[in-house]
Amino acid sequence: MKEQSGRCAPSGSPDVREVVIFSDEISRTAHKGLYNFDDGRYIRAEEDIVSSAVAVGRKDVDRIHIAAGWEDILRLALWTKDRPRIFDVVSLVRKAGIADSETAPFTKADPADLLPWLYYGKRFDVLRKICNAARKRAGAGLNRLEQHIYIHLTSEDTGQIIASSL
Predict the structure, then answer these.
(1) pTM of the predicted model, to two decimals?
(2) What is the DSSP string of the chain?
(3) Which residues contact 110 (CB under 8 A, 6 or more apart)?
(4) Cβ(151)–Cβ(131) under 8 Å?
(5) Which residues contact 153 (CB under 8 A, 6 or more apart)?
(6) What spatial distance separates the first Cα and last Cα of the chain, rounded to whole Å?
(7) pLDDT, tens digit, 9 for 90 and up, residues 18-34
(8) Chain segment 67-116, per-residue pLDDT in tens
């Protein structure tokens, strides 16, 4: 992973080190559009998102933002480097408040099929809960619970952050 971080200062706080791991250019652009961080704060996830989070989590940073698409957010929430299995994704969606009867059509679907269903169905509460599950799992996986981790789900269709753990 290419090192691009250093001491970073959000407005009014020169000693805080804050970085953003992004999975693709859409995620970087969406995050930068809202937060306008300096370019040096952005670190591309060159490996899988979980390995990238672990590598950055070992560095001396106070805050980690992770801006990524649906599949990478699911990888974080499930803490796996592999492609998320539909069984695990449906289970995660159910834990976020979707009834078994609503997820029944997706039990043999591709995990990517759930995002449009949730997004266009205006189930932003569920998307936010999934971001929070990813934040909690990343915090536990990094074994640095004192770090602030923020998860931002980006959409390829809109080019924006559509849900967040904030």
Answers:
(1) 0.86
(2) ----------TT-TT--EEEEESSHHHHHHHHHHH---GGGEEE--S-HHHHHHHHHTSS-SEEEEEE-HHHHHHHHHT-SSPPPHHHHHHHHHHTT--HHHHGGGTTS-GGGHHHHHHHTT-HHHHHHHHHHHHHHHHHHHT-TTSEEEEEEE-TTTSSEEEE--
(3) 86
(4) yes
(5) 68, 69, 70, 73, 127, 130, 131, 161, 162, 163, 164
(6) 27
(7) 999 999 999 999 999 99
(8) 999 999 999 999 999 999 999 999 999 999 999 999 999 989 999 999 99
Domain spans, the chain? 18-82+124-164
Please give the C-alpha separations between residue 25 and each of 1, 58, 79, 80, 110, in angstroms, as whole numbers: 16, 24, 22, 22, 24
> Please, what sign has the CA dihedral across residues 58, 64, 70, 73?
positive
